[in-house]
Amino acid sequence: MLHLQPDSDMGEALKSGSLYTDILKEFWRERLLDFDLVSFWEGVGNVSTTSRTNCLSLGIDTCRIVLLIVDQIVPRESAIFGVPSDKENIVKLTADHSNLCRFDLSEKDQDNYKLVRGNIEDLYESALKKGEFITLPSSPEGNLEQRMAALRPAV
Q1: Can you count the helices (H) and strands (E) in the chain?
Q2: Quick check: pTM over 0.90?
């Protein structure tokens, strides 16, 4: 797992509005319209608490209140592509950043799973209807150039 410091060069490069993210967005903007997209985003912020020990380390003598700090690691605006709604389905999941891709047996997680599964099934059905389901030669001797050409969208 990659852990970045907030003030690191990579962290700065990945911030919304940085030169790097602007270049990436511009590069993909027109290409994205060739695809059906689903963007899932964290609908619940991450909660952290401040305990008495933390209060003392901050120089606060009495700390009876536990502070809850709720924030999103990746806000909705950064989790979506921003293409027209007929090309991108934006889905809010009831999960924080750490649990966005985890589905246990709780009702909340099962509801999230159903949303994810349903959207993946919709993408599959859409691809079949559009004729994008391509059967490629499976033999290892197959001509790589022909296989790659079959993957390119028709112009």
Answers
A1: 6, 4
A2: no
- Nearest 5 degrees, angle CA 60-CA 65-CA 71? 95
- From residue 33, alpha-carbon distances to 36, 37, 95, 118, 150 in Å are 8, 9, 28, 22, 20
Give CB contacts under 8 A, 24+ apart, made by 24-29.
28/81, 29/83
User: Hey, which residues does 14 pair with through a beta bridge?
Assistant: none
Cα 75 to chain centroid, rounded: 10
Q: How confident is the model at residue 8 (pLDDT cuts 50, 70, 90)?
A: low
The amino acid sitting at 116 is V
- Residue 138 CA to residue 8 CA, distance in Å, equals 45
**pLDDT more than 70, % of the chain:** 61
Please name the amino acid found at residue 140. Answer: P
